[in-house]
Amino acid sequence: MKSKRSVLLMVIVSLIAIGCSKTTKEGSGEAQPEVFLVSDFKELTTLGVPQRTIDFGEAIRGDTVMIDFAVNNSGKHPLFIEDAMVDCSCMKPIYPASLAVGVSDTITVRFLTHDYLGKIRKHVVIKSNIEGKFTKLSFFGNVIESGR
């Protein structure tokens, strides 16, 4: 009975070890991570943002406002966006994971106004493989009650 437990334990440990192993490059023998972070990329590039601050004007409380930031890779290497950090759960950023050299795209922020009234200013911080790693984008506007 003791040997059956030992064999079973060895099988379980082997399965766990196989399931947790990292992938390797063919012939290199080096383990390669399956998830890449901005810090993994040594080649820095340039994130062009013609308008870093946008005035969305007025919105009625309860509306969803979509703010579009035009972006482009004006550098000499591919751009990788790792994250877009926001001020609060009232915002949801939608962004491309990467941009080839010379390519333009849009970072869109969905802003839910239901908890706001009056003038607001919000920020999104983009983490990417640029010098300094971070780019701050901002938007502002006025949230009014309906029927005004």
A few lines on this structure:
The chain contains one helix and eleven strands; from the N terminus they run αβββββββββββ. The chain has one helix at 2-20; strands at 23-24, 31-32, 47-48, 53-60, 64-73, 79-86, 91-94, 98-99, 104-112, 118-128, 134-144. A hairpin with a 5-residue loop joins strand 10 and strand 11 (134-144).
What is the number of strand segments? Answer: 11
Indicate how many domains the architecture comprises.
2
Structural class: mainly beta
CATH superfamily of the largest domain: Immunoglobulins
Describe what this molecule looks like in 3D:
Helix content is 13%, strand content 47%. With 148 residues, it is mainly β. The chain folds into two domains: 2-37, no CATH class; 39-144, Immunoglobulin-like (Sandwich), CATH 2.60.40.10. The longest helix is centred in the N-terminal third of the chain and has 19 residues, at 2-20. It is elongated, with a radius of gyration of 23 Å.
